[in-house]
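testing teh design pipeline on a random one, pls ignore if ur not involved
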C-alpha cells in the first residue's frame, strides 16, 4: 500500500524545508525541480530534444537554463514548446522513481501542482503557507531577485488562498518547530489511514 502526497506552495513559503521534514519522518521524496535538473544535465533525456529546437541552449552537452530563460523572454511561444518537450519526461522520471521506491508514503514536491492538474494523481495534497508579508521578506532576503521579478512570479502562480482551499492539509511554516509538528501530524494521520486500509 502506497500513499501519494502532493506537496505544493508558492515561492518563499518554505516548501523545500518542509519537504526535508517529510524525509526526516521516513517518507520518500520526489522533487520536480531536481528532476528537471537531471533531465537538463549532461546525458539527461531532455538535452537532445531541446537541443534540436533550441541549439543555442546546449552548452558542454547540457542545457543552459540561462539560455532558455533568454529565449523565453524573447519568444512568446518558447515556454510552451519547452513544456511540451520536458513535461512528458518529468512524468516518466516520476513514474520510474515511484516504481523503485519502497516507502509507504511518497511526497511529490511539485511547485505548480494545481496549475498542471497534478493533484488528480495524488491521494492527498499538502500546501505550505505563510502570510504574504513573510513570503515577501523571505524571497527578497535571498537577494536573488528584485521586487518586480518576485511580483511577476507571484502573479503567475495560483493565489495562495486558492491553493490552501484546494488542499487536504495546510502547513503554516512561520517557525521551524511549528512546521515540524504539523508535518508529524500529517504523517501520523496518513499512516493511521494506511493501517486501516
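output:
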Amino acid at each position: 500500500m502506497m500513499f501519494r502526497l502532493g506537496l505544493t506552495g508558492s515561492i518563499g513559503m518554505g516548501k523545500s524545508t518542509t519537504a526535508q521534514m517529510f524525509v526526516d519522518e521516513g517518507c520518500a521524496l520526489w522533487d520536480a525541480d531536481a528532476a528537471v535538473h537531471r533531465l537538463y544535465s549532461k546525458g539527461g533525456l531532455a538535452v537532445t530534444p531541446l537541443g534540436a529546437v533550441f541549439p543555442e541552449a546546449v552548452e558542454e552537452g547540457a542545457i543552459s537554463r540561462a539560455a532558455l530563460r533568454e529565449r523565453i523572454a524573447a519568444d512568446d511561444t518558447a515556454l510552451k514548446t519547452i513544456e511540451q518537450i520536458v513535461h512528458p519526461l518529468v512524468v516518466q522520471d516520476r513514474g520510474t522513481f515511484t516504481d523503485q521506491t519502497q516507502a509507504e508514503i511518497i511526497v511529490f514536491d511539485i511547485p505548480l501542482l494545481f496549475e498542471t492538474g497534478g493533484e488528480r494523481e495524488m491521494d492527498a495534497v499538502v500546501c505550505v503557507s505563510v502570510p504574504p508579508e513573510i513570503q515577501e521578506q523571505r524571497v527578497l532576503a535571498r537577494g536573488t531577485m528584485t521586487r518586480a521579478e518576485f511580483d511577476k512570479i507571484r502573479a503567475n502562480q495560483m493565489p495562495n488562498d486558492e491553493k490552501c482551499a484546494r488542499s487536504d492539509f495546510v502547513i503554516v511554516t512561520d517557525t521551524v518547530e511549528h512546521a515540524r509538528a504539523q508535518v508529524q501530524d500529517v504523517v501520523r494521520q496518513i499512516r493511521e489511514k494506511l493501517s486501516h486500509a
